[in-house]
Structure formats: C-alpha cells, structure tokens
Amino acid sequence: MFQIQKTFDIAVSHNLNLPYDSPCNRKHGHNLKITVYCRATDEQVWKNNNMVVDFAHVKAAVHTVLDHRDLNDVLQVQAVVQSSGTPNPTSEFLAYWICEHLVASCYRVDVQESDGNVATYIRD
Fold first, then answer.
1. In the chain, where are the structural domains located?
2. Which residues, including other chains, have CB under 8 Å from residue 70's CB and lie 6 or more apart?
3. Which residue from 99, 71, 98, 96 is spatially nearest to 86, judged by alpha carbons?
4. Is 65 in contact with 100 (CB distance < 8 Å)?
C-alpha cells in the first residue's frame, strides 16, 4: 500500500447558519490550509505511472472548485445537484466534501481554519 499527502492553501469566504449568536453567522473569510491524503495498492500504483495520484492533480481538483470562492455558493450548487439539504459550510463539512467529491483516491482530508483549529474527515 502506498500513501501520499498534499498540503496547500486556499482562500475562501463563507458564513455559517448557527442557531445561536456567533460572529461566524456573518460573511467572513479564511486562508485555509488543506491536507489531502490518498492511497493506492501496489498494483494500482504500478498501473498509474508509479504514482498514487499526481500531486498537481490533487491540488488542481480542489483549487479549481474552491479557491477564492464563497463556500455557501459552491456547496449550495452541489446540494441542488445531489438533491440534498443545504449544507452548513463548516470546516468539518468541507473536509468531508473534498474527500467524497473531489479526489477519487482520497481517504482523509484535514482543513486547518486557523492555528490550532483543524477539522479532519476520514472515510471508513
């Protein structure tokens, strides 16, 4: 089994819909540090140019969809496509969404919102 991790920064804006008074309910921005973990079997790696996945492809998949975007808009469109409820664009939900929708071989995503605040999603 092989594993890679790719860490990069993206800039986003969002506002949360919390049932209590919070400054996060107002539109604000973050410079997020995203770490994407991918893995593949030996056989998959040998068939894929001796790579789990190209590091540049991981970054491009996330940057293209999310960098300098409003997460409320991006995730609202995704919710309509999936016919699901509108998600609350928390760091936890973003980690889940990246893992499940943007990078096929991904099994874990860390979203660091600020120093000391990291949300992690790990696919079972």
1. 2-122
2. 12, 13, 14, 27
3. 71
4. no
pLDDT of residue 101: 86
The fourth-level CATH superfamily of domain 2-122 is 6-pyruvoyl tetrahydropterin synthase/QueD (3.30.479.10)
> pLDDT digit of tens for each residue in the chain (124 aa)?
999 999 999 999 999 988 899 999 999 999 999 999 999 999 999 999 999 999 999 999 999 999 999 999 988 766 555 555 667 889 999 999 899 888 888 999 999 999 999 999 999 8
Q: Which two tokens stand for residue 66?
A: 């999310």
Give the whole-angstrom CA distance, residue 73 versus residue 69: 8
Sign of CA dihedral 37, 60, 86, 100: negative
Ordered DSSP codes for 4-64: EEEEEEEEEEE----SS--GGGS-EEEEEEEEEEEEE-HHHHHHTTT-SS-HHHHHHHHHH
